[in-house]
Amino acid sequence: MRPTLNILSDDLIARILDEAKRILAETGMEIRGPAMRQRLLDHGLPLDASGQRVLFPRAVVEQAIADAPTSFLLYDRDGNPHADIGGDRVHFVPGSSGLKVLDHRTGETRLANSTDFVEYVRLGDGLKNIPYLATAFSTNADIEAQVSDAWRLYMCLTNSRKPVVSGAFTEHGVPRMVALMELFRHDRFDLIARPMSIFTITATGNFRYSEDSCQNLIDCVEAGVPVEIVPVTLMGLIAPVTIVGATVFHTVDVLAGITMAQVIRPGAPVLFGGAPATFHMKSASAPMAAIEALHLDVAYVAVAKALGLPCQAYMALSDAKLLDAQAGAETFGGALLAALAGVNSVSGPGMLDFVLVFSLAKLVFDDEMCGQALHFVREVRPLDDLPAGELVRQLMADQHLIMAPHTLEHWPRELYLTGPVIDRENREGWLKRGGKDAYGRACDEVERRLAEYRPIETDPAVVAEMQRIIRSGLVAQETLPELPVATEPSAPGGDGTARRRRNPRRERG
Question: Are 143 and 106 in contact (CB under 8 A)?
């Protein structure tokens, strides 16, 4: 069996769903996007007595749940199946929405630029426990805001073949991003059949969807881009401080998004997602790694699984400001809970400071945490060890099992051997390697991986067309930012010098 976790009984899940459907039918949602509002009205959804809120009848919601697929495939840039999103299959993904980076070379927290982002993509491309990427942080330091979402997607697509979680920050950003992705498919129908991205649609709280979210949802679903409905449920501020009450409010927001997606196109792939946080009553902050927020994550995931829907959560992240003991504890705790709960898409690795800051050093550290969490939830079953008579005989004969055929056969899969970020040396070995702490080892691993990055080829005509699409959205900026140029790693026995060229204006000591 697979190790698992569920904190809600079937009866309690049923009551939560019943209450969420009642709220949708009687209180409804404020739909601020005029096009979405009209589509819902044309579909037969009524308004409340004030004429301001759209009501979601129970039958419409239940039909939408039935229409939504239980799983879907995510494809890589080349059109190959890459990730099966559904069931209890867990995928860890870098967090999104960061505004700054923690520069591992200087220790400075600052606004990010395009060179930072390219280095992030090249680093993430080689992390085995990060199966797909995200447009993880803004690069507004050197690109106009109205095209920054498309620019980050461009940098992902030209530096990695992995799929990507993304989204548009403006009301009209999705079509430009879809146009970029279509360049790697035969046509729009092929992009619908073989999606390479998941886009985030944020429910804004207070039972409301903004103009941007509504239009982005329409554009994504019509283009065949899978969406994750992500309410930012703040316990104690705009949602109840109790787990059950917060789960009800969270479920209302998600079911409204799922229903709208299915009204647009029945069968559209949607993830039951979220980015909950608690409202800290003393510091007035919103910690996403708080144990109550993780509790809510696991609770709404149980609701999603009861409905047979794929799910997403912001977990395996930290509210700490550095890669320190707090960051390690919060990240691994969240990663393990997410793996046990079977969260299909876990957004969070690399994130610090209430998802405001992204750290490359933390990303490589988190890759190890995610790998250990995934190792823990493997299926537990006998492996030539029941009955154990032969193993007992060998132990009695040799006083160890290190050379036993059973050990030699199974240890490569049964033992998780960590990489250099995690210290498993004795003290003498640790000192010989420099006696560095986790942050120092992680910084070294970032540089090693960046030096070993192998560039991928992209048709120059496709690159030129992608750049044209992005430039067409510029207003005052005349050129796109200069990006670092990757070169092949030097051959074995080389001089060990730096193996990549970067924008010299961004070189740091």
Answer: no
CA dihedral for 317, 323, 325, 326, sign (positive or negative): negative
- On the CB side of 80, CA atoms within 13 Å amount to 4
Task: Report which of 10, 68, 85, 2 is spatially closest to residue 341, judged by C-alpha positions.
Answer: 2
What distances in angstroms separate CA 364 from CA 90, 95, 444, 450, one per listed residue?
18, 13, 10, 11
The number of CA neighbours under 13 Å toward the Cβ of 46 is 10
3-state secondary structure of 207: coil
User: Do the beta carbons of residue 183 and residue 4 sit within 8 Å?
Assistant: no
DSSP conformation class of 29: B
Question: Which of helix, strand or coil describes residue 293?
Answer: helix
Q: Which two tokens stand for residue 446?
A: 């970032």
The residue extents of the domains of the chain are: 65-376
CA distance 81 to 196: 9
Give yes or no for a contact between 395 and 388, defined as CB atoms under 8 angstroms apart. Answer: no
Sheet holding 345-347, edge to edge: 91-93, 345-347, 312-314
Identity at 301, one-letter amino acid code: V
pLDDT given for residue 429 in this prediction: 94
Q: Which two tokens stand for residue 105?
A: 């070379």
Would you say 381 and 413 are in contact if contact means Cβ atoms under 8 Å apart? no
- The residues, ordered by sequence, that sit 6+ positions from 249 with a Cβ below 8 Å of its Cβ are 233, 238, 239, 240
- For the chain, the first-to-last Cα distance in angstroms comes to 52
Question: What is the CA 462 to chain-centroid distance, rounded?
Answer: 27
Q: What residue type is assigned to position 413 of the chain?
A: R
> What's the confidence (pLDDT) of residue 169?
85
* Extended strands (E) in 267-400: 270-272, 277-278, 312-314, 345-347, 351-352, 357-358
Tokens of 69: 């697929």
User: How many other CB atoms are there within 10 angstroms of residue 188's CB atom?
Assistant: 15
Q: List all residues 6 or more positions away from 251 whose beta carbon is below 8 Å from its beta carbon.
A: 16, 17, 20, 300, 303
The answer for residues whose C-beta is within 8 angstroms of residue 405's C-beta and 6 or more apart is: none
How many CB atoms are closer than 10 A to CB 400? 10
Are 219 and 265 contacting, i.e. CB atoms less than 8 angstroms apart? no
In terms of Cβ atoms closer than 10 Å to its own Cβ (0-12, 13-18, 19+), residue 5 is middle
Can you name the residues that pair with 101 across neighbouring β-strands?
A: 110, 358
Q: Which residues of the chain have pLDDT under 70?
A: 490-509
Question: Distance (Å, rounded) from C-alpha 14 to C-alpha 22?
Answer: 12
Residue 38 CB burial class (10 angstroms; 0-12, 13-18, ≥19): exposed
pLDDT value of position 460: 97
**CATH topology assigned to domain 65-376:** TIM Barrel (3.20.20)
Contact present, 347 and 94 (Cβ < 8 Å) = yes
CB 83 within 8 A of CB 163: yes
Residue pair 139/100 in contact by the 8 Å Cβ criterion: no
